Amino acid sequence: MKYKILFYSLLTFASFFFLFTQFDCKTEPEKKEMNQEEMIKRGAYLVHFGGCNDCHTPKVYGPHGPMDDTTRILSGHPSNEVITAVPTEFLGPGKWAAVTNGHFTAWAGPWGISFTKNLTPDEPTGIGTWTEEIFIKAMRTGKQMGFGRDLLPPMPWFNVGALSDEDLKSVFAYLKSLKPIHNQVPEPIPPDSIYKIK
To answer: Rounded to an integer, what distance in angstroms lies between the CA atom of residue 127 and that of residue 98?
Structure first.
């Protein structure tokens, strides 16, 4: 009887030992690295969910108001758009914080006038010369190319910068997959110059 109990005890122990050594007991599944196609798909999802087209894509007007101009996706403020006088009487404490143009690509507020960037991979006018590292650094620091001037409102760089490296790489892969659109966006206009625009 004593040997029988010992035998079954050892058998039970051996069975548990075998089970624990043969199966991975991790609570999270192991992450598989995405291929380029998967990254582009994930990046497209994040760009659309994040509303990047709201400001970076010029608009056309239909029966229900402004809609994305699908021929100029994420190409930024149109270079041929005339900058009109900003209604500065609406801006200030206790008033409006910002006003925008009809494309939602130019924004005026206490920071001056900002123009949304061309996010297509056009080399001279978009992000064609940017690397993944430059893009991530710009989103994390709020600086043009990661070291230049501040990224101005309404760009929510602090929210975008909170994405994981993997998500930011996916966004960048998607942007680089777009059709390059040549569109030179103007430089920001400082606050003291808003009043000079006629």
So the answer is: 26
| DSSP H helical ranges for the chain | 2-22, 36-49, 52-56, 132-141, 157-160, 165-177
- 53 Ramachandran zone, left/alpha/beta (phi>0; psi -120 to 50): alpha
b/e burial code for range 160-180 (CB count within 10 A of at least 16 → b): bbebeeebbbbbbbbbbbbeb
At 67 the three-state DSSP class reads: strand
Per-domain residue ranges for the chain?
A: 34-196
The pLDDT tens digits for 90-135 are 888 888 889 999 999 999 999 999 999 999 999 999 999 999 999 9
Sheet hosting strand 112-115, strand order edge to edge = 99-100, 106-109, 112-115
Reading the block at residue 72, the tokens are 């100029």
Q: Report the phi/psi class of residue 117: left, alpha or beta, with left for phi > 0 and alpha for psi in -120 to 50.
A: beta
Instruction: Check: CB of residue 166 under 8 Å from CB of residue 174.
Output: no
Distance CA 97, CA 88 (A): 10
13, pLDDT greater than 50: yes
Count of residues for the chain?
198
Rounded-to-integer distance, Cα 23 and Cα 40, Å: 34
Cα angle 156, 162, 164; round to 5: 135
